[in-house]
Amino acid sequence: MTSPAGPLSGLRVLDLTRVLAGPTCTQMLGDLGAEVIKIERPEAGDDTRGFAPPFWPETKESAYFIGVNRNKKSVTLDMAKPEAQAILHRLLETTDILVENFKVGALAKYGLGWEQLKAKYPRLIYCSITGFGQTGPYAPRPGYDALIQAMGGVMSLTGEPNGSPQKVGIPVADLFAGLYGCIGILAALNHRNATGEGQQIDIGMLDTHVAWLANQGMNYLSTGENPPRLGNQHPNISPYQEFPTKDGYIILAVGNDPTFERFCKAFGQEHLLADERFATNPRRVANRDLVTQTLTPVMKTRTTTEWVEALEAQKIGCGPINTLKDVFADPHVNARNMTLEMDHGSGAKVKVIANPVKLSATPPTYRSAPPVLGEHTEEVLSGLLGMSAEEIAALRAKSIL
């Protein structure tokens, strides 16, 4: 039976994050059913509300902010003021998970550090997402996506062989940190279910970046040699790269020797199978420039569409290099329901990218659009804390809300 509320229904998250890594984590928790209360600065809010253009049409919100803040309630609080800190402590009494991405030690001055909270709220799961983690010589430093991509090694691997190092075109360091944070929280929830004990989760963006160096990291550890930049070529497989076609480009992914044999026999290149330089994947990798030079004129003989049809008929990995317009028009992407529209608090409709996790019994839910700044302040303070309209008005008069 499908649950309309999600697998994390009944859990409350206090979201003290902004920008991307932290909000990615808390949006995932919200999609899975948790109630997420996002604390924002009065008047200013999350920095990304102003990361524009583009703003979403007919709203005052950036497309950036809308992308990672659905299923959250926005409450404005000036945490520097004692009255706001007292409100946060009252919220913590019924909070399961706190997620924050302040600089190391910054929340302690508000009485909200892990060491200050763990005894008072022993079931609390406290996830800290920072650039460099809570320990080590770089811990005090701020973390930014491009900086982490540079320090984490991925920029040294990305780009053309004779070109400059390149960062990935999306903020992968932030995104991975948020997703690893969510994984840590789910593990901590399972531990708490068994023991009743909360814990801190220490996520450093540089740590998570090193973790996903994957095969390239292992290539270095096994040889002691820095892998070179290869453009769109694969470090361990050939041919596995982009090729020009008659009207554009295509990715050709020949994953093993039987697939290469099928390619050669189907497309008039059977003579290559008798050439020891092409005979096995290790030999093709050692002669990757020759492989590229040999196959490029072959790939230019057909259009991209013609190649996709012909290669798919041979069960050979391939695909066009889509623009984002192509991606969001793709029939498979649409069949998988990877976008949806939501009713925004401004009165406009906003389109967002859906959660990719497909759960058969407890799928992600989309209960509320990314909030207008402070949209739920009264609802949370009156509904959860029982504060009167007069008390709330007094806090507003003091610029606490």
From TrEMBL:
<dbReference type="InterPro" id="IPR044855">
    <property type="entry name" value="CoA-Trfase_III_dom3_sf"/>
</dbReference>
<protein>
    <submittedName>
        <fullName>CoA transferase</fullName>
    </submittedName>
</protein>
<dbReference type="InterPro" id="IPR003673">
    <property type="entry name" value="CoA-Trfase_fam_III"/>
</dbReference>
<dbReference type="GO" id="GO:0008410">
    <property type="term" value="F:CoA-transferase activity"/>
</dbReference>
<dbReference type="InterPro" id="IPR050483">
    <property type="entry name" value="CoA-transferase_III_domain"/>
</dbReference>
<dbReference type="InterPro" id="IPR023606">
    <property type="entry name" value="CoA-Trfase_III_dom_1_sf"/>
</dbReference>
<keyword id="KW-0808">Transferase</keyword>
<dbReference type="Pfam" id="PF02515">
    <property type="entry name" value="CoA_transf_3"/>
</dbReference>
